[in-house]
Structures are given as C-alpha cells and as structure tokens.
Write a structure and sequence with these properties.
The protein has 365 residues and is α/β, with parallel strands linked by helices. It contains 11 helices and 15 strands. The protein is globular, with a radius of gyration of 21 Å.
C-alpha cells in the first residue's frame, strides 16, 4: 500500500495529539513519530525519513523557523506544513516560514473540544495529504471538463516557435483592461512576493487579490508586500474606493466583491460575510463574478498557484464578458491546481511562468 510517513512536531502535548489523531484517521497515512522541539525533530527526520512534517513555530531549544533553516541544508527534506496560531505575530512568522520553504500552513484551533478540533485539523489537512500522495506516487488527476466559453488557443509568454503571429489581445476584448483580478492559494505568498514588486510604480489600474488565508494572516501578507513593492498594498476594507495603482488583498475569513458608488461612476470594495465558495472564504470565484459584471470587456483575470479549482467558474464569466485571462504555467506553480482547469478548458489567453506574469499583466492595460 502507498503510505505517507508523517512526523508531528509541537511543544504542546494537546496539539501533538490533535494533529496526530487527525492524521491517523486518513487512509495511507502513518504517523512515524512526534517531537516537542526542533532539535529532537531534526534528529528524528534523519532516522525516520518522513515524507511530511507538521511543524509548530514557537518551541523551546530550536523553534520552527530555526528548524526550517536547518532543513535547507538537507538533500531530501520532508514537505513541511506549519501549524500556526491565529495572531498577528503568528501571521508574520508563518510568512517567514513560507519564505524558508514551508509548503503550506493551517491555523491552530483555539476553541472547542479536542474531538471538534481534531475534525477541523483533519479537514484542513486532507487536500494537502492528497497533493502529497499525487506528488509521491504519481497519481494523475482526470482531465478537466470543458466550460461554456469560446475556446481561444493560449499563447505562452515566450513561445519557442510560433508558426504565425499571435494577437496581443483576443477579438472578444473591446478595450484595454481597467482592473486586474488575481486568484491564488498554496504557494501564493512566495509567488506574490516575487510578482507584485515587478509591477511598475506607475501602474494605471487597481489590482484585487484573493489569497486563501485566514483572518490576520492576510493583514501580515499585505504589510509584507507593501514594504517590498513600489505600489501601495493593503488589506481591503469595506467601502474602499478602487483606485489605480493600489493593490487590495481580500481579508481572510470574508468575501470581497465590487459594487458601484453612489455617483454611478466610482467603484468600491464591498466586504461581506457571505458563505464560503469551493470551501474558500475569501473565494476567487466570488471576486471574479463581480469583476465580470462591473468591468465588461475591460478587465484581466489572473489565476496562479494553488490547490483546488476556486476561480474557474468566475474566470468563465469574465471570459464570456470579454476579459483577458492569464494563467501561471505548471512548471513554476507550487501546486498546479487552480490554473489547471481554466488552461485545459481553453479559456486562457496567455500561459506564463511566474517571472513573466507582471509583464503580461502590463500588456493588457
């Protein structure tokens, strides 16, 4: 049987039990050991050779950040999932952990009974474990089903050979884009840290981003990107006026959409507590639908690294309303999930590696 070996690292016995029990409920998972600090974990990694490790950040002797730094010197380190507290400090440390190579993170349940928290952790871990199984054992997902949009053959950002010139803009687009919508998930913080600073200071359109993250973490991400970018980056607030050259990140645990201002000309951000879509809150589909409605033929949709298919339905609506669609290529995605179905269904206009996405965005405005 194909088995994933997991090491659970946390200085609190309660969380070692919660995470360990959640993993043991999943088929094909073997919890090969636990550790209460990074130093012990480092020793066990060398002997047990786990495929996957859940890792707390704040621990005695050697914390999670220090352990990740040590793992960078290993030839075949395990895939690391951070288990982080829902605080501003937890968000900042988690971003640092992701920059050091952690694959993903899940928030620690702060309230509720152990059984309830175990189920929450199990639900959060399941898609990650499925990805690890695909990665390790070569399980291939079934092909994406075509969507109801007119297929336009995608061009790559730098085609090796083009038998004929490709148009810079498909016939369906009526004018230059006036807004950019981005959907992104697993691997997103690192990808955005590379891509957003590549956008020029004089960008003449707003950028709205849905990054799958819980509350507080999106504020930390916005603050981090703001320091690294020439553009103003902020966590969106209800009522924010959508202005050129501003980057708005949807707040974790909320939904973000566009509404018309009272004058009928301006557009504002509306933050709602509407239900999750595709188990996501914020959801890219939710944002993309409102862009399709308010910017007919004047928008660009960008779909980047992430698990699942959030964003696909919204991109179809954007495409049918004349939007230009850019997808990150498989090679540079941490997880080729969210861009996969739009690309295979034929609604994508440009497939670009991470380092070319900013250039492709600029070409549409």
């Amino acid at each position: 049987m194909n088995t994933i070996k997991v090491l659970v690292v946390d200085d609190t016995i309660v969380y070692r039990k919660i995470v360990g029990d959640a993993l043991k409920q999943m088929p094909g998972i073997e919890v090969v050991g636990t550790a209460n600090n990074g130093r012990i974990a480092l020793s066990k990694i060398k002997t047990l050779k786990p495929d996957l490790m859940t890792l707390d950040i704040e621990m005695p002797e050697m914390n999670g950040i220090e352990l990740l730094q040590e793992l960078q010197n290993m030839d075949s380190p395990p895939l690391v999932i951070m288990v982080s507290t829902l605080t501003h400090q937890g968000g900042e440390l988690t971003l640092q952990a992701l920059e050091l190579g952690a694959f993903d993170f899940l928030p620690k349940p702060e309230e509720g009974k152990i059984t309830e928290n175990m189920l929450k952790v199990q639900k959060a871990l399941e898609p990650i474990v499925r990805h690890v199984k695909r990665h390790k054992f070569g399980i291939i997902d079934p092909p994406a089903r075509p969507k109801h949009a007119v297929p336009i053959p995608a061009r790559t950002a730098e085609p090796k050979a083009a038998p004929r010139p490709l148009p810079s803009r498909p016939a369906g687009i009526r004018s230059k884009s006036e807004i950019i919508g981005i959907g992104i998930s697993t691997g997103g913080p690192n990808a955005l840290t590379k891509m957003i600073p590549m956008l020029p200071k004089d960008l003449k359109v707003p950028v709205l981003i849905v990054q799958h993250m819980p509350p507080l973490f999106t504020a930390s991400l916005a603050a981090s990107l703001d320091k690294k970018s020439a553009l103003d980056v902020k966590e969106a607030k209800d009522g924010d006026i959508i202005e050129p050259g501003k980057v708005f990140i949807a707040p974790g645990g909320k939904q973000m959409k566009i509404v018309a201002g009272a004058d009928g000309l301006t557009r504002k951000i509306k933050i709602t507590d509407d239900p999750p879509e595709n188990s996501c809150k914020p959801s890219a589909d939710y944002l993309f639908r409102s862009i399709a409605q308010h910017y007919v033929g004047r928008s660009t949709g960008v779909i980047m690294t992430g698990m699942g298919s959030d964003g696909t339905k919204g991109l179809v609506q954007m495409k049918n309303n004349g939007s230009f669609i850019i997808a990150q290529d498989e090679k540079t995605c941490t997880v080729y999930g969210m861009p996969k179905e739009p690309t295979e269904s034929g609604i994508v206009d440009v497939i670009a590696p991470l380092e070319k996405i900013a250039d492709e965005i600029v070409k549409t405005i």
